[in-house]
Amino acid sequence: MLTRLAGGHVIDPTNGRDAIGDVFIRDDRVVEAPPGGVVDESYDVSNKIVMAGAIDIHSHIAGSNETMGRLILPEQRTLLDGFHPGHFPRPAGSWNTFETGCTYAAMGFTTVVEPAVLPHQALQAHLELADIPIIDKATLTVLGNDDFLLNLLHRREGSGAIRDYVAWTLSTCRGLGIKVINAGGAAAFKDNLRAFSLDDEVPEYGVSSRTIVKALQRAVQELRLPHPLHVHCNNLGLAGNVETALATIEAAENLPLHLAHLQFYGYGKEGSRGFSSAGARLAEAVNAAKSVTIDVGQVMFGQTVTISCDVLRQFNARNRAHPKKWMICDGDSNGAGIVPYDYKATDFFNAVQWAVGLELFLLINDPWRVFFTTDHPNGAPFTAYPDILALLMDRDLRAEWMSRLPKEALEVTTLSSIAREYSLVDIAIMTRAAPAKLLGLKDRGHLGVGALADIAVYSPGNDKATMFREAALVFKNGQLVVRDGSVRHAPFGRTLRADPDYESGIRVRMRDYYQERYALSPEFMTVADATIGRPDPFEIVPCLN
Amino acid sequence: MTEAWIRGKSAPLDDAIIEAANIIGNGRQPVIAGLGTDVAGARAAIKLARVIGGVIDHMHSGALLRDLDVVREAGMMVTTPTEAHVRADFLLLVGPGLIEAWPALPERLFAKRRSVWLCPDAAAVSASTYENVAIVGDNPADLPTIVASLRARCAGRPVGNAPVALATIDAIVADLRRARFGVAVWSAARLDGLTIEMLSGLVNDLNASTRFSGLPLASADNGSAVQQVAGWTTGYPLRTGFGRGVPEHDPWRFEASRLVDSGEADCAVWISAYGAQPPTWTRNLPLIALTGNPNILKAHVTIAVGRPGLDHDAVEHLAATGTLAAVSARHPESRASVASVLGKIITKLPAARPC
User: Is B68 touching A (CB cutoff 8 A)?
Assistant: First the structure.
C-alpha cells in the first residue's frame, strides 16, 4: 500500500530538508514520489510539522530495578502522567510496560534505549521490553564493576581478551552497546569505601576508575560497535563534581565517548550554600571536546523515583528518600538503588539542578552532540519531555518559570542571561537525526528514501508542550498507531542489538570462570529468541565498517 | 496428552476449555489465584484477568508482601545469592524455614564462612547438623526479641529480659560488627513483618561502619517471578484487580481467599503447576483448576498442566542466582503449559459478558 502525507512542513536535517512537501510510505519504508502521483491513501498534513519518529537514547524503562521501583511505589499509580494530570487522552494509567509504549508513541517517539542492563539480569529486561508496545527498543549492557573485567585489568591481560569478553557479554545479553556506571565504584563499596573518584583504585584489584573507562572505551572502538562507550561518571550529584566530569571529558582523549545525564555532574561549590551551577564551564568543555557527546538528564519539579545501578551514590542518598522508603542492592557487578525523590521548585538545590540542565542544553552549541533526556525517571518521568521542549524553544516561558524559583538559586547559575531558543530544526536534530547517528541506526531518524517509516506529525500552536505531547499522527513501520494524541493501534516492536565477533575460546573461558566463581553455568544469563515469547524479537544493528 | 475433567468426568481438552471459558466469562467477579506458574503462564493469567475484569493473587502473596511491605514502609538493603556465595564472610541465618525455602542453601552458602543461626526449625536442624553453623535460640517465638536485642546492643543500648544470655547476644553483635561483608538470610514464609523490619533495620544500622546486606529467600511456586511479571505488566505487585478497567492494587481488597470466603468472588481459576497446592479458601464456588496434580481438589473443570521446566520450556526465578532464567524441558510436550491453556480459554470467552 502506498500512503502520502501531503503538504506538511517536513523537517529532516539528515537530508537537509526544511520545507513544505510530501512524504510517501510504501509498506514499512519511505519511498520516492510515485510517477503519476497515484496513491492508495492520503493524509492532508498541511499546516502540520512532519519529522521522523523521535529516538530516546537513555530512559530506564525496563528491568528488575525499574520493576522494583514499580513495586515499592504503588501509590505512585500515575507516575507517568502525575506531572500533568488530565493531559493524557486515556484512563488513569499506571506505570507499566503497556502504558510506557503507548505514552511514548503518543509523543511521537518510536525508538527508546534502556541504558542500564546488568548482564545477569538481561533476560528479565528483554522480557519487559517485549511487553512494551509500538516502539522499538534497545539495551546497553553494563560492565565495569564486574570481577572478570577487573581481574583482566589487574592481571594486565591484553586488549584482545577484554575485547572478546565485551563482545561475548554483549552477544549473550543481546545489548546494543556498552555502558559503564561509576566504574569500580560499586566494587569498591563492597569493600566499604564510601566515595570513589576517577583516579581512585578498587581495593581488591588495584585498578583505577580511569583504567576501567579507558579499557572499555578501547574495546568498544576496536569492536567497531555503533555506539561509543556510554559513561555514567563518578561522584554523581555531589557539590564540586564538575571536576570529575571535566577530568572524564579530558580522559576521552579525542576518541568517541558518551557522557550520560551530564546535568548531575554540573555542580560547583560556590555561593553561601557551597552549591552552584558549573553548567557554563561544563558546556564550554563539551564545546571544545569534539569527540564527546552528552545527554542532559534534565530535572523537572515533582515526585519521581531515582533508579540507578550506581549503588554507592544511591546508598549515600537513601536517607533523603521521599517518601521515606528505598531499596539498595549489592549486586553481582553493579547492584542497584531505588530511592524515591521529590524535586521541589521551592528547594534551592533542586532549582539549581533544573537550571544546570537548561544551561547545558542552551550553551552547548552543537545540537548533534547534546541529547535530550531526563534520565527517566531520575530527573523526571519522560512524560515531562513536552514541557522541556517548550522551555528550550521559548525564553519567555523560561523567564516565567524562573520567576517562581528561589532567587538565590538562580544567582548561582547563568540561566537568566541566556537568550538562545531552539528551532524546530534543532529539535529534530537533537531528538531524531543525532540519536540515529549516535546509535548507528542508518534507516532511522530521517525521512530519506529507504528510511523506516517511523514518522511523527505535529500540529503547531502557541502551546508547544501540547504540540509535542499529543502528536497529530504517528506511523510506526508505516502503520498508523497514533491519531490526535490517542493510540489507535498497538503492535509490538523489536529490540535492536549488536552482534560483534569474538574468538570462540572466550566461551570455554567464561564457562570455566562461572564454574569456579559461582559454581554455576553462565547459561542462566543467555537471552534467546525463543524465550522472549514474541515472533522475531530482535533486529541486528551492524558494526561499523 | 493433556488430561481434563468436567465435574469429575474425563472430557476432551477442547470441551473443558469451552466450559471453563463460559464459567469465568459469565462471572461477575472472577478471581485468578494460586498462580504457581512460569513467566509465560503469569503473563497469560494477567492478560485473562485484564480481559474479564478479574483479580490476580498468588498463593504466597502473604510472604511476598511481608518482605515488600518492609521495603515500601521503611527501606531494605539486599544482596544476591551469587554475591553472598562469593563474598559473604559471615551469615546471620534468621528463623525457621530456610532449608525448606532453598534446599541448596547449605551447599551454596554454608561452606567457607562462619554462620550463626537464630531459632532454626528444631526438628530439622540441631547443633551438630552443619559445620561452621552455631545455633542460638530454640523457640521461634523468641525470634522477635532476639533480633530486637541484637539491634539494641548494636546501637549501644541496654537490653533486659532477652530470651538468651546477654553474653550470647553481645558475642553475636561482635560477629556482626567484625564482618566485612555480612549477610542476613531469612524466609518471609515463616517470619512476621515486624521481625523482618527489625532485622532489616539492624542490617541498615550495621552499614554505618561495615558492609552488611540482607538475603530474603525467594517465594515457593515461582512466586518471586510472578510478582515481577505483575510488576511490569500492571505496574503493581500481586493482589491487583482489573474490575474498574484499570489495574488497582490493594493487599486486603484483592486477597483471593477473602474475596471467595466473603462471597464477593463468584468464580475462580486456581493455578498450581508446580504440584499439589490446594486453595486456602473454604467456600465452594465454580472453580477451574489448572494443576499439576488433578487428584487433590474438586473443581468444575480440571485440566492437568505440565510442570514448568520439566514438561515444557519455561522462564523461572532461580534460587541460586536470584534472577529470571530460561529452563529447558526435560520431558517436552508431555502436558500442556498454563500459558497455552489460558491462551485457549481467552479465545473461547463468550462475546457478551456481564459488565
Answer: yes
**CATH no. for A1-141+441-503:** 2.30.40.10
pLDDT of residue B161: 84
- For B232, which of A128, A325, A519 is closest by C-beta distance? A128
Domain ranges of chain A: 1-141+441-503
> pLDDT at position A90, please?
36
pLDDT at A73: 87
Question: Is the pLDDT at B309 greater than 50, yes or no?
Answer: yes
Q: pLDDT per residue over B55-74, tens digit each?
A: 999 999 999 999 999 999 99
| Burial grade of A18 (CB within 10 A; 0-12, 13-18, 19 or more) | middle
**Is the minimum CB–CB distance between A525 and chain B shorter than 8 Å?**
yes
pTM listed for this prediction: 0.97
Which of A94, A324, A530 has the CB atom closest to B235's CB atom? A94
B72: which chain A residues are within 8 Å (Cβ-Cβ)? 71-74, 325
The answer, yes or no, to whether residue B353 has pLDDT greater than 80, is no
Q: Considering only CA atoms, which of A4, A36, A37, A50 is closest in space to residue A432?
A: A50
Inform me whether the C-beta atom of residue A332 falls under 8 Å from chain B C-beta atoms: yes
Q: Peptide bond before B308: cis, by omega within 30 degrees of 0?
A: no
Residues of chain B with Cβ-Cβ distance to A68 below 8 Å are 71, 231
Question: Chain B neighbours among A 479-498 (CB < 8 Å)?
Answer: none
Pair A471, A108: CB distance under 8 Å:
yes
Distance CA(A283)–CA(A132), nearest Å, equals: 35
Q: Is the pLDDT of residue A92 over 60?
A: no
ipTM above 0.90, yes or no: yes
Contacts of A102 in chain B (CB under 8 A): none
CB spacing of A520 vs B82 below 8 angstroms: yes
Chain B residues 220-249 with CB within 8 Å of chain A: 227-228, 231-237, 245-249
Say whether B77 and A131 touch across the interface (CB within 8 A). no
Q: For chain B, what is the radius of gyration of the CA atoms? A: 22
Walk me through the domains of chain B, giving residue ranges and CATH numbers.
4-60+221-347 (3.40.50.740), 65-216 (3.40.228.10)
Contacts for B329-336: CB closer than 8 Å, 24+ residues apart: B334/B1, B334/B306, B335/B1, B335/B2, B335/B3, B335/B304, B335/B305, B335/B306, B335/B307, B335/B311, B336/B2, B336/B13, B336/B303, B336/B305, B336/B306, B336/B312
Q: Does A531 touch chain B (CB under 8 A)?
A: yes
Burial B178-203 (b: 16+ CB within 10 A, else e): ebebbbbbbbbbbbebebbbbbbbbb
Query: Which tens digit of pLDDT belongs to each residue from A481-499?
Result: 999 999 999 999 999 999 9
Q: Is B320 on the interface with A (CB under 8 A)?
A: yes
| Spatial separation of the C-alpha atoms in residues A65 and A338, rounded to whole Å | 7
Ramachandran class of B137: left when φ > 0, alpha when ψ lies in -120 to 50, beta otherwise: left
- Which DSSP category does B274 fall into? T
The single-letter code of the amino acid at B20 is A
Q: In this structure, what DSSP letter does residue A377 have?
A: T
For A296-305, write each residue's pLDDT tens digit.
999 999 989 9
- As a whole number, mean pLDDT of residues B4-20 equals 96
Q: At what angle do helices B13-25 and B39-52 cross, to 10 degrees?
A: 50
CA A142 – CA B74 distance, rounded (Å): 29
